[in-house]
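Data deposition worksheet. Section B asks for the primary sequence of the deposited chain exactly as it was used as input, without tags or linkers unless they were present during the calculation. Section C holds the resulting structure in token form. Section D is free text for depositor observations; keep each observation to a single sentence. Incomplete worksheets are returned to the depositor.
Section A, Depositor: J.P.
Section B:
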Amino acid sequence: MAACGWCRGRAARALRTAGGSLWGPWGAVPEPRAVSVPSSSLCSERESSVSYQELKDLKKANVLHIDVRERWEIDRDGKIPASINIPLNELVEALQMNPADFKEQYNQKMPAKSDHVVFSCFAGTRSKQALSFATSLGFSRVQHYAGGFEDWAKHESPQKK
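Section C:
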């Protein structure tokens, strides 16, 4: 399984930390292999992102769906039903809040680091950043809806405030 660009970067950093280099006398090494990295720590785009249908199915289960668009975007365009809005610039702080404060601020139970969380935005860029932020904070079951609100609106009418 080939790793995505983000994972190759992580592997390259691990290689440099271990004293290796991606640059040798023969130029760039296409795939770093000097450091053993467990496959569970490597992501693939398929595993970290969900499709429209997968998100619909997950919403029937106990998944927390966080929309990281700005509030004015939600007001203007609407939202995906049963999602909560935490703008990307608030996300890191929100995911580290006291659970009571989180509940008061977002009217939702604070997710545990082992809870399944799916992030979305307009077209997938900010949700991928949110995924990275949450992973760096120790959240282990996080994904993002790569198609975002733009894709959802092609399938269903958004929920207006």
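Section D:
The helical segments are 5-17, 45-48, 52-60, 71-77, 88-94, 99-106, 125-136, 148-155.
The chain has eight helices and seven strands.
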